[in-house]
Write a structure and sequence with these properties.
Elements (H helix, E strand, L loop, with lengths): L7 E6 L2 H17 L4 E6 L1 H5 L3 E5 L8 H6 L1 H18 L3 E5 L2 H13 L3 E5 L12 H7 L2 E4 L5 H6 L4 E3 L4 H4 L9 H5 L7 E5 L4 H21 L4 E5 L6 H9 L5 E4 L3 H6 L3 E5 L2 H8 L4 E5 L3 H10 L7 H6 L5 E4 L5 H13 L1 H16 L6 H20 L1
Parallel strand pairs: 1-2, 1-4, 2-3, 4-5, 5-6, 6-7, 8-9, 8-11, 9-10, 11-12, 12-13
Helix pairs in contact: 1-18, 4-5, 10-16, 16-17
């Protein structure tokens, strides 16, 4: 790289949450390096932030071994395109955002080309396959973690690590219009609202939306005054989800409004597992976590996991603060029973809300995206100095 050439950073995100995190980091990074060249794999958010997208990751945002096999053709095509871009453009830094099985393969390829690699959002070595941390260390130059407790794992393995904090701490704030959200959605102010949050991946929608809709029907059969709201991620097919909801005998209000405005207007939420549980926790709304994957994927994963919880809200709190209903336990009667407990048992409800405050305390002081952008900038400067 000559003195006049701008830095080139390639970022790889494989699903909606990673796409969002990447976009937030890019916005800050551009303030530090206005002329920086940015390319990579992502989707709507990263493209909007000015990243030159070489492969749209919306088609490969899947979870579970069986699900990956079904989409292997698309994943293989993405790998081929990314490898080709790495070989052709030789970026100064490769930033990998979550999506570990795919991204660690790309890390090894980048290292073989002499490209520096920064991994953002650690693979869950604290949850399953802890010994792989040594393999990860051989594939990357630096790890950036969202949770403070993660640093000890990398420090013990002598892998350079930086705790940048979780960007959600700054991001999760309702807008000034939040108080009008019920009116916008046509909900009477005195109605109790149940949020249905099936996720942002197509595989999650396929497995979780039907049981959530059946849960809503079961709950309304007991209390016909309840209102159900389902936020639809921008990565999903709104029309297809609406068509499935229309088959129900009850009304489900679909919205693509500000997610946090929707959350704070819910009295309780039934949610998929994932980052959204942290968003809900940060806003202090009681929730129940459900999750389903294919039988084979679950049998394999359940033998690998080394922690007691799968929900990030519980993991970050360091204890069980919300109920988790998984696989065969995630059926409508079970879920509706937990939701009614959150609505009607005031002592239990306050206990859950108190637990959610612990989640907030353990996510850091904020400005996670800025800390990450500063880390990228410092690694770029180191790269430049080492080549002078």
């Amino acid at each position: 790289m000559t003195e006049s050439q701008p830095f080139h950073v390639m970022l790889l995100a494989g699903e909606a949450s990673g796409d969002a995190h990447g976009a937030e980091v890019v916005e800050v990074l551009r303030q530090l390096q206005p002329d920086i060249r940015l390319s990579g794999m992502g989707s709507t958010a990263m493209k909007r932030a000015g990243v030159d997208i070489i492969f749209d990751s919306a088609s490969i945002a899947v979870v579970g071994i069986v699900e990956v096999i079904k989409h292997w053709g698309e994943i293989k095509q993405a790998m081929k395109q990314v490898k080709n871009q790495l070989e052709t453009t030789r970026p100064d830094l490769l930033v990998l955002i979550d999506y570990p099985e795919f991204n660690l393969k790309m890390a090894r390829h980048a290292k073989s080309l002499g490209i520096k690699v920064l991994f953002y959002i650690s693979p869950q070595v604290w949850a399953w396959r802890p010994k792989r941390i040594h393999k990860i260390g051989r594939s990357i130059d630096h790890m950036a973690v969202l949770f403070k407790f993660e640093t000890q794992y990398y420090e013990n393995a002598k892998i350079p690590v930086t705790f940048v904090g979780h960007p959600l701490v700054d991001k999760v704030k309702p807008s000034s219009q939040a108080s009008r959200e019920k009116q916008r959605l046509g909900i009477q102010e005195n109605k109790r609202v149940i949020g249905l949050f099936p996720g942002s991946r197509r595989s999650e929608i396929a497995r979780l939306l039907p049981v959530m809709l059946d849960t809503a029907a079961a709950m309304q059969a007991q209390d016909n005054s309840l209102v159900f709201v389902l936020p639809v991620a921008p990565t999903l097919d709104f029309a297809a989800i609406k068509a499935e909801c229309d088959h129900q005998s009850i009304e489900i209000i679909l919205t693509q409004d500000n997610l946090y405005d929707v959350i704070v207007n819910c009295d309780a939420i039934v949610s998929c597992s994932g980052t959204v549980t942290l968003e809900i926790a940060l806003l202090g709304i009681p929730l129940c976590i459900i999750y389903k994957m294919s039988w084979l994927s679950y049998q394999i994963m359940s033998r690998l996991i080394t922690i007691n919880h799968i929900g990030l809200a519980n993991i970050v709190a360091g204890q069980k603060v919300v109920e988790e209903l998984l696989q065969e336990d995630a059926y409508p009667e079970n879920i509706s029973q937990e939701m009614f407990r959150l609505l009607n048992d005031s002592n239990y409800r306050e206990e859950v809300i108190a637990g959610l405050k612990k989640v907030k305390e353990n996510l850091g002081m904020g400005e996670g995206s800025r800390h990450m952008a500063n880390l990228i900038n410092s690694l770029l400067v180191e790269t430049k100095q080492s080549t002078v």
